[in-house]
Amino acid sequence: MHYHTLDNPQNTHFITNLTRQSLKERETDREREKMAYSACFLQPSALASSAARSSSQRYVSLSKPVQVVCKAQQPHEDDNSTVSRRLALTLLVGAAAVGSKVSPADAAYGEAANVFGKPKKNTDFTAYTGDGFQVQVPAKWNPSKEVEYPGQVLRYEDNFDATSNLNVMVTPTDKKSITDYGSPEEFLSQVNYLLGKQAYFGETASEGGFDNNAVATANILDTNVQDVGGKPYYYLSVLTRTADGDEGGKHQLITATVNGGKLYICKAQAGDKRWFKGANKFVEKAATSFSVA
Fold it and tell me: Cα–Cα distance between 41 and 32 in angstroms, integer?
């Protein structure tokens, strides 16, 4: 074994033949040190490729001994080297974790996937603001130009059944409050045109619960008085039926109040058959949402 003398007497260089096992260990240590050194400068993708190359080189089989130049070190320096390599690997892992960023596509997917964490919007209704009033209109109902009542300023109809509709009427009044009309039942008698007029006035026999000479009837199912924004509102639920049994009758919900010398009435209705198939929630929501400014 041939030695070369260096300026530092404590260190000597020597050339030796290493066994295949010792060469593998030395290559492993050098690759770890290279990876630790490059961790501060490489992106996560570069680190991954470097690690892959290291893994492939680590198991290269050598057919004959190779001469390498080594530097002898004292035992405590070997311990420090081991600690340094461990520290380098720790830094490598930390750098990879910090350097990795979530791509915009992954972030967007995460937000879209969190459907249960977002509040759901009510898409069944659309807010409508008119002159002095506002109301929630079923989203699948369309505006109609048909004028059915005096003072009508708004009309919406169900796209599939015109029997289900919403009307808003505004007429002048000398009343200061809706309560000046009397009770809800007395008020309804003064605006009974909202329930429709009897078109046939001939003689008829009493049949199916109808009086003689009557082909239509109206039953008040419920009345209510509520204070909204300091103003009293009348709410009435009426079921009208005709002798021909059309739709099995009509459920009509009426909301009324007085503001600024005007009588505001909102009437929403649906046929009895559709009422019990889900139309009731649209009619009830529309009628109870009506309010004046």
Answer: 15
Q: Please give the sequence-ordered ranges of beta strands (E in DSSP) within the chain, or none if there are none.
A: 3-4, 13-17, 67-71, 125-129, 133-138, 141-143, 152-158, 165-172, 216-228, 231-242, 250-259, 262-271, 291-292
Instruction: Identify the architecture of domain 125-292 in CATH.
Output: 3-Layer(aba) Sandwich (3.40)
Give me the half-sphere count of Cα atoms (radius 13 Å) on the Cβ side of residue 155.
13
Q: How is the chain split into domains, by residue range?
A: 3-102, 125-292
Contacts (Cβ under 8 Å, ≥6 apart) of 16: 1, 67, 68, 70
Angle between the N-to-C axes of helices 20-38 and 44-58, in degrees from 0 to 180, rounded to the nearest 10: 180
Structure-block tokens of residue 14: 């020597």
Helical H segments across 63-205, by residue range: 75-99, 104-113, 184-190
pTM over 0.70: no
> For residue 53, what are the contacts with CB-CB under 8 A and spacing of at least 6?
none
Residues 274 and 237: their CA atoms lie apart, in Å, by 16
Structure-token pair, residue 220:
């008040």
pLDDT digits (tens, 9 = 90+) for 210-248: 444 444 689 999 999 999 999 999 999 999 987 655 667
